[in-house]
Structure formats: structure tokens, C-alpha cells
Amino acid sequence: MAVYEQTYKSYTGPLTPALSRFLIIPRYAYEVVFKSRLFVSFFVLCFAVPFVGLILIYLKHNLSALQIFGTSAGEIANALPINHTFFYWGQWYQGALSFLLVLFVGPALVAPDLRNNGLALYLSRPFTRTEYVLGKMSVLLILLSAITWVPGLILFAFQASLEKGWLGQNLSIAGAILIGSWVWIIFLSLLALAVSAWVKWKPVARVTLIGLFFVLMGFGGTINQSLDVKWGMLLSAWHVIGSIWYSLFDMGVTDEFPPAGAAWVALIAGCLIYLFLLYRRIRAYEVVR
Amino acid sequence: MSLGGRPILKDLTATLTGRCIGLLGPNGAGKTTLLHTLLGFYPPNGGTARVCGRDIRRELREVRALLGYMPENDAFIAGMSGVRFVRLMAELAGVPHSQAIERAHEVLFYVGLGEARYRDVGSYSLGMKQLAKLAQALVHSPKILFLDEPTNGLDPPARTRMLRLIRDIRDAGEVRVILSSHLLRDVEECCEEVLVLKDGRIATYTNLEEERRANRKFLELELRSETEGASAAFAEEVEARGAELAAGARQRLKLVLPEGLGVRDLYEIAAARNVQIRRLDYKKDSLEDIFLKAMEGGDHGRV
Fold this sequence. Notes:
Chain A is mainly alpha-helical.
């Protein structure tokens, strides 16, 4: 409509499919998130470890390249086995970076909408609470996927392409990367959204997130020591996810983490609690009792 | 419909068909709750409602696709320019990306925010925020527009502009408007029908246009008489001849004349009773009268 024709005209064109509309939220969120140079720098840095991993895999299978460094190819190749341990530690690095990325992005996801009554605008459209949560979660799901299982599987595929027979023996690693990453991503995303929904001020939300990870870990350690049990560490998200990754990557037996079965239960319970807390807040209007 | 265990809307049964319907009622009458229930924000405890034939319990997504909602309170998405905010709202309602951009610009120009469309919505004045809310409610071309106190906090020129826009939308005929307000003048200026709520029930549902067309006129008389009881006798005779009347203070009468009884007859009756008619005004049944009458009585929730 031309500027001078200021009369109301209705839109009669086609509509987008309802099922994919939740993806509009991450698209708009990324326009804001990637405006921050600090975030972009950090995001690029998140690919450093996978990139180093890629180089290591390449060098291991390229003896002539190793000889340039004047080293014994066999020694290095033996010192750097590309196996479940290699991918397990990669998972840890990327998992820790995921937490930092969530600290960056998470607190600003829901809180501004609650503060400015934005939810009434979202939910007055053909857009449900579930789609809203899914949309906001997708912001983190996509970003975290990009730095966890996607590079993990690329490394896995690269290694498999360079060594014949390796894929068949290590197929479980791909499953461990995929499942381990998704479990962590979903847990982190739900936690970040729940905190963002309940703590409206960004710095406080960040401190809350850090507190939930490190204070609870300290508290769990205290329980373990004072009661002489090992279940206290189920309060620590690091130990819970560590236990799950340890078992998924088939790393053997350890006393460092709580049992994997209990860790799964704790993780699912945590996700359900965060989901419950989130749905308590995601309403068009708060009902004051 | 109960909120926090407290019943808000009770026994409502109505069919609203007008182009622009005013939702009136004192604070706490349930106007906003009614809109929110129709939008599906609160599920009703019992009964249901249909919007353009669609059930709000079973077809909420379809119902919301038909509605545009301008909330009463400040409501916007933080950190967005006006055009980006309206574009997002259009896309969430299903308008494709490229058309959403075009629609956002169009609607912002239409409501008068064209020049300010690249400014952050958070930096808008109250009046501009009201216009931005109207723009986001209109951008996806709803069939029904819910406006909740659209002139709240606006200065007179901004209020006039908002009411002009609402009338313009109404007259374009593509959108039906439900205007919730406690300001009678706003409703009187824009609406053809009025639904008055009182304590969560329908107090009255009036077609203002019909009322106006019927031109049912009130007469306000101010009497003066030296003889005691003469004014009362005048009133009795007028009533006996079929007029509806209500006595006010200081010998003032409000009356509705029946067919066959004219002003001349009143003067004749007054002369016969030795009563002077010192003032005689025609007064239309104003929305204020309808509202006040509704607040005294009530239709007990059914129209």
C-alpha cells in the first residue's frame, strides 16, 4: 500500500503451516543474539576444540604430515588413540562450553516477555504455550546442537572415513555422542528457560544458573561427606551428566560419579521439575489469588 | 468463569452480532475477563462460547486466528523496532515472511506510526505504544478486533485519533470490533451496540443505533407553582394520560410522552392546574442513562 493510501485493507494471501511457526522465534532471537560481538567471538571459539580434534585425526592418518614435525609417526599415533576416550573428553569440553553459551543466551529468553506482558501478544494468536516453549527452547537447541553433537558426528564420520573397519567397531560412539548431547541440551535448555521465567533480572538469572550448578555440587559433596553416602552427588548436574556420559561412552567403572541408573532418574526428574516450573509461568496473564 | 477460586463471569448467555459492540461496566465487572475467556487465556468452568461459529473450547487455534487483540496494559516485545515487532506478530499469525514485512509497514502507516516505525518500541510514548498495540492486533487481518481500553492514558488529541481509527476500521466493514471500556463517551462515539456487564452478569444489551433511530425523546420539565400540591396534581394527570415519568428534586420531572400527548397538551394541563412550566428540554436517552439504568436493575445474564 502506498503511503498516501492510509485506509485499512485486509490481508487475503496464503498462510504458513501452523506446525512450523514456532521456528519464527529462534529466527528473531538470532537476529539479536548475533548482533553481540562478544557472543559471536565466543561462538566461534566453541569450534576450537572440534577443529583441533579434526587436525589430530587428520595427522594420525597422515604419516607424511607427522614427519614434517620431525616426530616418530608411530609414537604419536599410539599416544593418540581415536576411540571412545577421545570422544568422551570432546563431549566434556563441548558440554562445558554449552553451559557457558546458555549463560549468555538463556536468561534473556523468557524474562523480557514476562516483564513487558509480551506473552498475551504471543498467546492471543494461533500459537499455543507449547509452541512458545518449543520456540524459545529451539533458540538453545539449535545453538547447542551446533557446538555439541554436530561437530562430534563430523569428527566421528571423518575418522570413520579415514580408517577402514573402524566404523563397525565403534558405532556405539556415534550413539553416545547423539544421545549424550541431546540429553544435556534438553536439560540445559529447560533449566535456562525455567530460570528465565522465574528470575526477571538477567544478571541475577545468570548467578542463579551458576549457583544451581556449583552450589548444589558443593551441597551434594557435603551430604556425601557428612552422611557417608554417594547419592548426594545426584544434586550436582555435572556429576549426573558425567555419570550418563561415562556409561554411554562405555568408559568402565568409576567411583567418581553416582550410578548411571540413578543419574538418569535424577536427570529426568530435573527436566520434569523445570518443565513444571516453566508452565506455571507461561501464561498470558497471571491469576492473582 | 472463576479466577483464583472467585467467580467472575456468571450465567452469561448472549449472541453478539453488531459491527462495533461496546463492552461497558464498572471496574471489576468482568469485561477484560470476558475478552480473555474468548481468547482462551482462561478456560471456562462451565459452558462455552462460539466465535464466528467456532467453539472456544475445541477450536481455540481457529478462534484465535479470527481474532486480533489489543491488551489493556503495556504489552510489547522488548528490544524490537516498531516494524520488527509488528512483523513478528504477523508471522506468528501465519503471514509469510515477505508479506509480513509489507503488512507491518502498511499497518504502521495506517495507525500513524509510519515515521516512528524504526524506533525501539520500548522508547515509544504511551500514545505510540497504544497505536503499536493496535497495529499488531490488525496486521494479520482478523475478523474480530478486541480492543481493551484503547484510550487508556491518552491525551485528548491522541484519544481523538484513536477513536477516529476505530470508527474508520468499523466503517471499512472488514473487521468487527468489540471495544471494552469504562469510558461511556468512547463507546458512544464508536459503537452501535452496547453490552453492559455488572458483577459478571449481563445488565443490559442495547442497540444504540435503534435507540437513536427510535428517537425516543425524554422531556425534562422544571415546574413552578404557588399552590401547594399543584405540581403533584400536574404529574398525576400527565401520568394518567399515559406518560412515563420520574420526579426529580425541586419540582423537576423527567417524562416520556406517549402517542397522542404533545407538548401543547402539557401546557394546557399546566395552565388548568395553575402550574408554570419554567423550563422544557428535550433529552435523548443517552448512553449514560442506559448505563445507570442497567446498574440499578439487570437482565440476569440473558439477552
